[in-house]
Amino acid sequence: MARTLWDALGQIEDGRGRKGRQYQLRSLLGIALAAMLAGANDLLAIHRWGRRLRPEALELFDIKGGKVPCHATFHYFFQSLDAYALSRVLGSYALDGTLPGHIAIDGKTLKGSHRLDDKAIHVLSACSTDLGAVIGDLVVEPDKNEITAALVLLKGLPLEGAIITGDAIFTQREICRHIRDKNGHYLFVVKDNQPALKAGIAEAFGDHSLLGTGPDRQRSAA
Hints:
- The protein is elongated.
- It has 222 residues and is of the alpha/beta class.
- It has helices at residues 5-9, 25-37, 43-51, 55-60, 71-80, 83-95, 146-155, 173-181, 195-205, 215-221; strands spanning 102-109, 122-128, 133-140, 163-166, 185-188.
- α2 packs across α3 (43-51).
- The protein has a 5-stranded mixed sheet with strand order 3-2-1-4-5.
- The protein contains 10 helices and 5 strands; from the N terminus they run ααααααβββαβαβαα.
- A hairpin with a 4-residue loop joins β2 and β3.
């Protein structure tokens, strides 16, 4: 029998204390995910969506008695939630034992995540284009960069047979070596800020390279 998303959510470890577990972790996450799919984009909207559920609908989220989680419950719940554990479980659920195929890695700064003196949250994600799903992500710490984060992210993914693509920032020896060590492949951009590597590629491919300097290339460029 195929594993459901409800089953997967039940595998996430609950970091709340015993006194703060009036509702199961997967009950709160289930309501939050369903509300977000319905257009909710903050905790208050999630709470309001859940508040409109009938008792029989709440029972589908394993909530008995018709008592809806309040806004504060969602607030403290998400504060204690292990985001990395959630990411790992959802990534594993999306893969479901299949090979990821093409994996695109990219970093994005989350809109609206800036708080007071803190920097906005920057997240590096790995998306399986074959599956149409994110299979891994992590927050890039303010004092780190995407290069270090990419290596950590890739170490947690099945890379055998996969093709990894990304921006020029990921064209780094350690990243490429790790991908090949795991029997994966990569396709990264090389820019002018790596002149020796760019020249080496042009030399290796000769006239077959767009960067080649052979007579045929020179004539076509003229």
